[in-house]
Amino acid sequence: MGFNYLIFSGLYPSFRLGTFSSIKLYFRSAPILQGGGMLNLKHKMNFLKKSVITLFLIAVVVSGYGQSVITPKSPILSGKDFQFLESLTATIIDSSRIYPGQKVADQMGNNNTGSILVKPGGRGSYPAFWIRDYAMSLESGYITGDEQRNMLILTAATQADKTWITKNGSLIPLGAIADHIRMDDSLPIYFPGTYSFEEQGTPQFGRTPPYGDQFLFVHMVHYYVKTTKDLSILNQEINGTRLIDRLEIAFNVPPSGLDNHIVTTTEHFRGIDFGFRDVMTITGDLCYPSILKFRAAMELAELFEKLENKTKADKYSLIASKIKGALPLVFMDERGMLKASTGKGNQADVWSTALAIYYDILSKENTERTSRFLSKAYENGHLSYNGNIRHILTTDDFSESTAWEFSLAQKNTYQNGAYWGTPTGWVCYAIAKTNFKLAQKLAKEYIDDLREYDFRKGLEYGAPYECFHPSGHRQNPLYMTTVSCPLAAFRAIAKP
Questions:
Q1: Which of 159, 260, 327, 341 is 20 to 30 A removed from 286 (C-alpha atoms)?
Q2: Looking at the structure, do residues 20 and 127 belong to the same domain, yes or no?
Q3: What pTM did the predictor assign?
Q4: Distance, CA of 279 to CA of 415 (rounded, Å)
């Protein structure tokens, strides 16, 4: 193609080859550019400049047939639907703010922490500060830097400063991060199932605190540093220990393999893998918290790079690399789905699978295979309902009476077979890898459901709900991650 091609490829590298063919013919047919004797070089260059502008306009018109080649991204949602979701998310997060002195529930006193807290949703549900829900909502962009700083300092200040045994015989190890924190007295509750500091740690919710919160603590700090550029906070001492040191201590709390760094647990000394399935018993090597650990390792590597500590940056980069290599080997089935664990709950896990693609953990080949399988599951009605996602495909239920192998919740309620909006964006992201139009369809169904039940219509409405089921089960209105997590994922999706 020579000189003529180089001009256009340099200015407009996104043009399709077919467009270049037409442009090349135009140049070849222009006698003013042929040979060297008709006009001087100055005149040739002036003509060339005008031709570039003209042909650029032609190319814009030509490219209008089919996918645009000028716009680098094609949104998963229409502008109107994006605006709706952003507005709803901002409203939900605002309704989740608990201001100093504010009371939100009879079983909890006033917010005496001295700063704004963001609880998991609006109205009266979950009247405490939950680490995971907050950390998962940061990418929404609707939580200020000052709010972030105060909540991460509170989280760090309640990190376990010693190893101790609860009244109910459960272990809280040094460095553990709270599951949730009371707003009236700032006491950390390390286990699900209660708001009581004294009564926490009953066996049905594990003998050690849930594993995901340690890695989400790292994410809280990383996101704060990334968005505020406040690197000094890493060296700030909180109860006598630097924040960066607290991150490392937390990172090492969940037990893991020495070689592959995959998070693991045993039935007799069980820790919940992730708080969004705290009513399930899942044992062995654990997929979801290992994915969170991968991201946390990458984030720690970046933080240590900013601190110019190459040794530790390399250390955490290596850990991330080992987890990335091990995840498909340990958990992937023949269909491309990642199983939740290698022990109890050894079932294909939609959330883990989609999240692994979202964090770019799987190879290109595995990503495409998994994407095609999720696409088929969606088309066959096994994956979603009204744009919301099950933990387990309906075809993969453990039995007629339960979706997961063991659950404290009845089938098709809560975490045992209800449909959740939280992972919808991750699933859309995964499906979009091979079928963008199908991902758009799923995203549209999700938005349409939110519109139909939008809580702003009146008190009888409650969307975004935490979860629901076609049988009529609906739980916890005005739930934050139902909109904050999909919004972040939708922003990241571009047409392949």
A1: 159
A2: no
A3: 0.85
A4: 7
Mark whether 34 and 135 lie in a shared domain: no
Q: Which residue has the tokens 């958990």?
A: 331
Which pLDDT tens digit goes with each residue over 286-332?
Answer: 999 999 999 999 999 999 999 999 999 999 999 999 999 999 999 99
Distances in whole angstroms, Cα of residue 431 to Cα of each of 258, 292, 481: 34, 21, 20
Q: Is 484 a member of any domain?
A: yes
Distance CA 35, CA 44 (A): 11
Q: In this structure, are residues 318 and 375 in contact, taking their beta carbons and an 8 Å threshold?
A: no
Can you point out the beta strands (E) in 169-282?
171-172, 180-181, 188-189, 237-238, 241-242, 264-265
What is the Cα–Cα distance from 89 to 489, expressed in whole angstroms?
A: 13
Cα torsion 368, 370, 372, 374 to 10°: value is -150
C-alpha–C-alpha distance, residues 20 and 17, integer Å = 5
For residue range 59-81, list pLDDT tens digits in order.
333 333 333 333 346 799 999 99
* Residue segments in the chain with a per-residue pLDDT below the cut of 50: 1-72
The closest of 463, 435, 462, 322 to 379, measured between CA atoms, is 435
Nearest one of 153, 92, 148 to 120, comparing CA atoms: 92
Distance in angstroms (rounded) separating the CA atoms of residues 258 and 399: 35
Which residues, at least 6 apart from 366, have a Cβ–Cβ distance to it below 8 Å? 328, 332, 336
